[in-house]
Predict the 3D structure of the following.
Amino acid sequence: MSLIDWQGYRCTDFYDELLAAPGQPRPAARDLCGILAGFSPQDLAERKAAAEIAIQTMGITFTVYSEGSMIDRAWPFDIVPRIIPADEWRRTEAGLKQRVEALNLFIDDLYHDQRIIKDRVLPAEVLAQSVNFRPQCRGIDPPHHVWAHICGSDLVRDGDGTLYVLEDNLRVPSGVSYMLENRNVTKRVLPEVFATGRILPVDDYCAQLYDMLASLSPRPYDEPRVVVLTPGIYNSAYYEHAYLAQQMGVELVQGSDLVVDDDDIVYMRTIEGLTRVDVIYRRIDDLFLDPEVFNPDSTLGVAGLMRAWRSGKVALANAPGAGVADDKVVYAFVPRIIEYYLDQKPILPNVPSYLCMFEEDRKYVLEHLDELVVKPANESGGYGMLIGPRATPGQRAEFAERIKADPRNYMAQPTLDLSTAPTLCDGGTEARHVDLRPFILSGTDIQVTTGGLTRVALVKDSLVVNSSQGGGSKDTWIVETDGE
Amino acid sequence: MLSRVAENLYWMARYIERAEDTARLVSVNSHLLLDLPHQTALGWSTLIDITGGDELFDKKYDRRSEKNVVHFLCVEPDNPGSILSSLAGARENLRTTRDVVSREIWELINELYLEVRDQAESGLTPRRRDAFLKRVIRGCQTLTGVIEGTLSHLSAKTFIELGRHLERADMTTRILDVRSGNLLPKDPEELRPFEHLQWMSVLKSLTGYQMYRQQVRLRVRGPDVLRFLLQNQHFPRAVARSLEALAWELQSLPRHDRALAAAALVRADVLEADMQALARSTDELHAFIDELQIGFNTLHEAIVTTYFARLEDTPRGLLHGGEATIAEEDDED
């Protein structure tokens, strides 16, 4: 007798990623659902324990820093994978490539002629008030004219099954190491499903990342020296920094390991002496990169790094200033940005957005605060948001005043019915909300991870997928079907 | 390999060795004093001189009593050379570089540090002291074993070995200096009856008694013990042996000329010394050990400037050697 009873699985309130209806797995999930349903309670307990042991022994952790001490927590993981059919994924992949290509053209334009503003597609005030626009980057031509080399876009699926882009992370997106490790764990835990041979592999990422980074080198004829620059062990993503450096076989450096000489060349201090660095995959925010140019108190960065970058003697990924397109107000313009630069219709839709800077939109938002999610333009991690349907009338009134006082800083979206996926809970599987973060690499060409990192809100009915707040993750399978 | 990583590993190894050898130092003194007649009131005071902590000690304590000295050497957080500070130093240095070594090493250091910290006060009573010191020595030896058994012999290991051998050579001479301060009679006739016992204690504190007997096969005599601990080529805690191992490690590194020359110089000093003369005179032994320590320091400076050099003068933070102690609030996990 199995604990997993797909007939009794409650999946009718939201779009479910694995089941079309109770007892009816979607075609791509048929093999998996069948195998899971065949597990005895003991089988299931053993698989779950095996995953926990694998995570411990592989040392997959994330860091929580609280009350002055650092805690490495085991990565929360659910063994039931999330499945996307390959044909749907191919369309999504094309949409992501299109989007990132346009975003890079957009960023390059903003730091050069600003045609998009002159042509009145983007209002000048959007740029004027952007906190992530770096005037220091104007006129710079990074290799391949690419600014956002690594992009993590968050996708969510609404009640009718449409995949929307929720946001684009163009500064220092994280999570890819967990995507890779989730696959390693799942292979150990559910090897029999992989035997069907229809699950596309994910493990090229680090090689692709290295090749892309190496292609940025100012000395292409020599073997390029690539490094990963981390703020250090107290950063919550330190595990990932160390992981990527290890997988690419490059040094993991801190700001104090690097030095920029008067010749604008970046060196790292090694036991062999000073060694030239060509490409820096930096996991430090713009404002901490270089105390000569940005925050003068920063001890995380490297004095002179911007000089070196401007003179083309080192490549930075992502380029400083790429975050200008990572802004919730700019986000609302992305469909127009795609049409403007590529003359194409967007393949992936944006979540409909209302910009409070426009009078008509603002009026709508203020009248429908109880239905909308209102977000400030430049906060991340869900800070400073109003979730209209869950707020009190007092909170909504207060938020209305904030919007009126600073309309450029707010945008609103309808609340989405996020899709669910079956997740192992006490005594069986239950539906939990999920999102998806694929990673897009841009160098001479554009590559998208096969799937991405699926994050899951482990708490019933919760929409919060952050690992620090009760979120977990799942392996993401792109599965070939026979065109059913 | 990054200079920062190399430097952290070098210091980690020095701190582990320092913790172990400080435990040995306290242990040998405890045992020696039990064997001596009571007039040797200076017994504990010389340990402070030998470890170079005079000024700090006198600021913190009113008297050089056994209790105060043991506390200062074992668990005083303000003493950068105390066992507790050394283990904290090893742990802090590894914390930032833990992904270059095996996970077991980090876990062991962490565990040992926390245990010593928790026993800091209760472990020092005369009755429990021996067990406490043994635990420290065993813990450090376990670490050395795990490093040996799990780490590939590449640059990371090389810097660990450099730190360990240099610290060991240095600490072996300091332990011998206890002998010079405490035990060599000003009037050679005075303490003759105890001499045999005392030299035996020195050997035992360095776990060298059995090895000595195997190799020397004579009754334990001063010049032979000194020769064994300074010049022996086989005993792992002998100064010449440590320096030779260090020189061998250095040869695998690039740009080793200066450091290797410094190591050769101090090694020659050790090998050319006249053991008979040193065994006869407290002052001569003490002066000789001072000379060796200057040599160790030159060697250390050569390693630092060759491999860890910083271009700008970043203030030396908490993570590196000597002066700094470790922030106390950061010790919870």
Chain A has a mean pLDDT of 90. The two ends of chain A are 30 Å apart (CA to CA). The interface with chain B takes residues 59, 67-72, 232-233, 242, 246, 251-254, 256-257, 259, 268-274 of chain A (CB under 8 Å).
